[in-house]
Structures are given as structure tokens and as C-alpha cells.
């Protein structure tokens, strides 16, 4: 089955697969084979690297709390938990932290074994569709389990369903899309083994079907055992082939690294010398040879990616992991490329080399500057966001300018008169949230018998003009 992992890893919900299988069953009267399922998914699924999340692989307390918002992030009393499509590779901690769970969604992960759920005594529905499970086990402790979904896994040991005989309340079981679903006598074996079942793969089990399955049970059981042996031999070969490919891949990657020791993929003979790209980057100009090398590298990566997706692959747990690792690698390379394109933003110039302060309004806030002659002070009303935490605001008053850092972004304003930084005060308005900074002016300068306040401008006709500003720098 070529590259079915490519399509299964990106399926958002196991229910999508289930609906397609049930629709197929209604048309043809039987469940589709894995090959037919692959073709059906191929027509619907389109995978792109940007759709993938970073690999999580572990069940952590933080992960559970982030998915427990419907329960006020309280995890010990959770009754329903959804951890689908989190790239979880192992089940752990859930049976200790969430013992009241009744519904647990774990579809579309990379879980290879059913474990650490036996203490979930209240669990009624467990969804493990689209994972890497190869055997049904460790569910005996789930005493009230009613529904179990194992759609599209890698269960080839069909006799492991016998472990579910202890789950006397189990009514629904989904095994379609597994290798064991292709065994001759698959349905009859399951129906005869699990007599408490009412539904199998979405199809109701009637009384006559169960009686017939029980009558032929001994013959069917032997057939199942023979098919299991053949499957185990095939899986052993697949695992051996997967290990061989992994070793070959690691060797090829090592050769690529050794052949490209330079920073930009070019072999520099002197490792202590500055690469050409570093010298040219100062002037924001690239040497044509370096640009050509970058283009060649991107072309090679594109060809490698195309080769990976076009390479025939057997549908195995190893191929699913390989697909995920490849897409994770592509995502990281894309992020690195984006970071290089963004570059480092130069810091904002607030004070010139000559010592002159500049007007800056990086947070783009409205403000009002008032010259209060009555109280001999300058008042700055800065319209910061009403619900912003005051700890995110820093105020710095200097004799000739005032600077306010709002969430790290500078607001700086040159003052019309010299003020006293030590006597200045800042407070937030309780109604609007605005920041109000009061800055007392330095005492008036006395020249001869005439006193002129520094904050008042004199126009050409001798009249005085008071400064009022309401604008955005």
C-alpha cells in the first residue's frame, strides 16, 4: 500500500475516515480494504507542510490543562478530554490525573501501545483511531467501557480481542482499516469471541449472525491463527526494512554534512576566515556566486522533498513516523528561512549623536500636551489602552523630554520648557485608563526687571501664545 501514511497523518478527525468507510460499506456490502481506503483518502486529503504542528510526543499536565478550558482548567474532575492530533507517541499520566474521565479522544496521534488507562474506572468511550497500535491490551480495568474505536491502526493480532471479554459493557467496536480486518473470517471471529457486542464497524450484529459464528468458531479460530502467523512474518520483514532505510538515511545525511561544511553550504578552505556572504551582507548585496549557491541548495532540497513523497512506501507504523519526521524537518527549515528573511530590526533612534532628543510615537497612541500656567507645570495625557497592566508601562522624565515605554515600544516627546524630573508624578485615570504625567516647570528665569516663563512663546507682534497639542507623532 503506497504512501497511505502520507494521507493518514494529516486527517483531522477519525470520524472522517469512519464516514467514508461506512459509505463504502453501504454501496458494496463490505468494508474497504486498506488499499481501497488509501485511494479514497487520496482523493480528499491534501497535505502541506504549513499545516503541521511541532511534535509534542508527551502527555504533560500543561497540555491537559490547555484542553480543559471547558472545566475551568481543572483536570482532576474532568469527564471529557480531547487530545487528538497532538503527535502523542505514548499514553501516560492520564489515569493518575483524570480518574473521572468518561470520554477520551486520542485519535490521529502516534500512540503505539494501549497503556496507563486501566485506572479509568468511569471511562465509557475511548477513541484511539488513526494511531500506531498493533495489539488490543490493558483495557480490562475500564469496567464500564461501552464504545471503543480503533479505526485505521495496525492491529494484525486479531486474537488480542479476547482481552475485551472482561469488558462486559462493551457494545460498540470499530476495527475497520486494520490489517486484521482483511483476514478471512474476521467478522465471524470477533462476533463469536465478544458476545456482549451489539455493533461491529458500524454494522449491527443480529442474533442469527452470532449463532452462525459460534457454530463455526473452531474452524474460524484456526484460520485466524494461520493468518496471524503470516502477518507476523511480514511485519518482521517490514521492521527490518525500516531499520535498513533508517541507517541508509543517516549515512546519506552524514555525507551531505561532510560535503557541505561551509555556513552557506559552500566549502571554505579556511574555517577561521569570514565567509563571503558575511562581508557582502553589510552592504546588503550578495555576490552572484553565493546567490547561485543558495538557489542550488533550495533546488536540491525541493528535489529531495519531491523524491520523498514520490517514493513507494509500505503502510506501517514506521512509515507514519518517517512521514511526520520529514514534515517536521521541512517545517523547521521553513521557519529558519522566514527568520532569515525578516532579519534583525534596527533599534529606534531616540537621541541623535549630537544629543538632540527626537519625537517618537512607536505605539501610535493619541496624546494631549497642556501647559498649565496656573500651577506652573506641563501635563501630558497619554491615551494608553484602558485594560493594559500598569506593569507594562515605564515612565522616564528628563529635563527637556519625557519617554514612556509601552509594552517595550517607545513614546518620546520633546517638552516646550525645562521641567523638574524629581518632582514629576504619573498616575492612571480610573475611568479612561489614560496615563497622566504632571511635570513641574523649572522656576521662571528673571532677566532685569522682566520675568518670562519658559513655557510661553512670544510671537512676532509681541503677543503671547500658549502651547496646546493634541496630535499623533
Automatic annotation (TrEMBL):
Intracellular or extracellular location(s): Cell projection, Cilium; Cytoplasm
GO biological process, one term: outer dynein arm assembly
Keyword vocabulary terms for this entry: Cell projection, Cilium, Coiled coil, Cytoplasm, Leucine-rich repeat, Repeat
SUPFAM superfamilies: L domain-like (SSF52058)
GO cellular component, one term: extracellular region
UniProt region (Disordered), positions on chain: 249-285, 442-473
Domain U2A'/phosphoprotein 32 family A C-terminal: residue ranges: 183-201
Gene3D superfamilies: Ribonuclease Inhibitor
Superkingdom assignment: Eukaryota
Basic and acidic residues biased stretches: 462-473
InterPro entries per UniProt: CS_DNAAF11_C, Leu-rich_rpt, LRR_dom_sf, U2A'_phosphoprotein32A_C
Quaternary structure, from the entry: Interacts (via CS domain) with ZMYND10 (via C-terminus).
Family, similarity comment: Belongs to the tilB family.
Protein name: Leucine-rich repeat-containing protein 6
Organism placement in taxonomy: Eukaryota, Metazoa, Chordata, Craniata, Vertebrata
Amino acid at each position: 500500500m503506497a504512501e497511505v501514511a502520507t494521507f493518514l497523518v494529516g486527517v483531522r478527525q477519525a470520524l472522517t475516515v469512519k464516514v467514508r468507510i461506512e459509505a463504502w460499506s453501504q454501496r458494496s456490502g463490505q468494508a474497504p480494504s486498506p488499499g481501497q481506503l488509501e485511494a479514497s483518502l487520496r482523493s480528499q486529503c491534501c497535505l502541506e507542510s504549513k499545516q503541521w504542528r511541532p511534535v509534542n510526543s508527551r502527555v504533560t499536565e500543561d497540555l491537559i490543562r490547555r484542553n480543559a478550558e471547558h472545566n475551568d482548567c481543572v483536570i482532576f474532575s474532568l469527564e471529557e478530554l480531547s487530545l487528538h492530533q497532538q503527535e502523542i507517541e505514548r499514553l501516560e499520566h492520564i489515569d493518575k490525573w483524570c480518574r473521572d474521565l468518561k470520554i477520551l479522544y486520542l485519535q490521529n496521534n502516534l500512540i503505539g501501545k494501549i497503556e496507563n488507562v486501566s485506572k479509568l474506572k468511569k471511562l465509557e468511550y475511548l477513541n484511539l483511531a488513526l494511531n500506531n497500535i498493533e495489539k488490543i491490551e490493558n483495557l480490562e480495568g475500564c469496567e464500564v467501557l461501552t464504545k471503543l474505536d480503533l479505526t485505521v491502526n495496525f492491529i494484525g493480532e486479531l486474537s488480542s480481542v479476547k482481552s475485551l471479554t472482561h469488558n462486559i459493557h462493551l457494545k460498540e467496536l470499530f476495527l475497520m482499516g486494520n490489517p486484521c480486518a482483511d483476514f478471512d473470517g474476521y467478522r465471524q471471529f470477533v462476533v463469536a469471541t465478544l458476545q456482549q457486542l451489539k455493533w461491529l464497524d458500524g454494522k449491527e450484529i443480529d442474533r442469527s449472525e452470532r449463532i452462525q459464528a459460534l457454530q463455526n468458531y473452531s474452524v474460524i479460530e484456526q484460520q485466524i491463527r494461520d493468518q496471524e502467523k503470516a502477518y507476523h512474518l511480514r511485519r518482521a520483514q517490514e521492521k527490518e526494512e525500516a531499520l535498513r532505510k533508517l541507517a541508509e538515511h543517516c549515512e546519506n545525511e552524514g555525507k551531505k554534512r561532510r560535503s557541505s561544511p561551509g555556513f552557506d553550504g559552500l566549502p571554505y578552505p579556511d574555517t577561521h576566515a569570514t565567509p563571503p556572504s558575511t562581508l557582502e551582507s553589510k552592504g546588503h548585496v550578495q555576490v552572484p556566486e553565493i546567490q547561485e549557491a543558495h538557489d542550488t541548495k533550495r533546488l536540491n532540497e525541493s528535489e529531495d522533498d519531491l523524491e520523498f513523497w514520490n517514493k513507494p512506501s509500505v503502510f506501517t507504523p514506521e512509515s507514519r513516523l518517517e512521514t511526520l519526521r520529514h514534515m517536521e524537518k521541512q517545517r523547521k527549515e521553513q521557519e529558519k528561512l522566514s527568520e532569515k528573511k525578516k532579519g534583525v530590526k534596527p533599534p529606534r533612534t531616540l537621541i541623535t549623536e549630537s544629543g538632540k532628543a527626537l519625537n517618537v510615537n512607536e505605539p501610535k497612541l493619541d496624546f494631549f500636551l497642556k501647559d498649565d500656567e496656573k500651577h506652573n507645570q506641563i501635563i501630558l495625557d497619554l491615551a494608553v489602552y484602558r485594560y493594559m497592566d500598569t506593569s507594562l508601562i515605564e515612565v522616564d522624565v528628563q529635563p527637556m523630554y519625557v519617554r514612556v515605554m509601552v509594552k517595550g515600544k517607545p513614546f518620546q516627546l520633546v517638552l516646550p520648557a525645562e521641567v523638574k524630573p524629581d518632582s514629576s508624578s504619573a498616575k492612571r485615570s480610573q475611568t479612561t485608563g489614560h496615563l497622566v504625567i504632571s511635570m513641574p516647570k523649572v522656576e521662571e528665569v528673571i532677566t532685569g526687571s522682566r520675568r518670562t516663563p519658559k513655557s510661553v512663546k512670544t510671537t512676532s507682534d509681541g503677543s503671547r501664545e500658549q502651547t496646546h497639542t493634541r496630535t499623533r507623532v
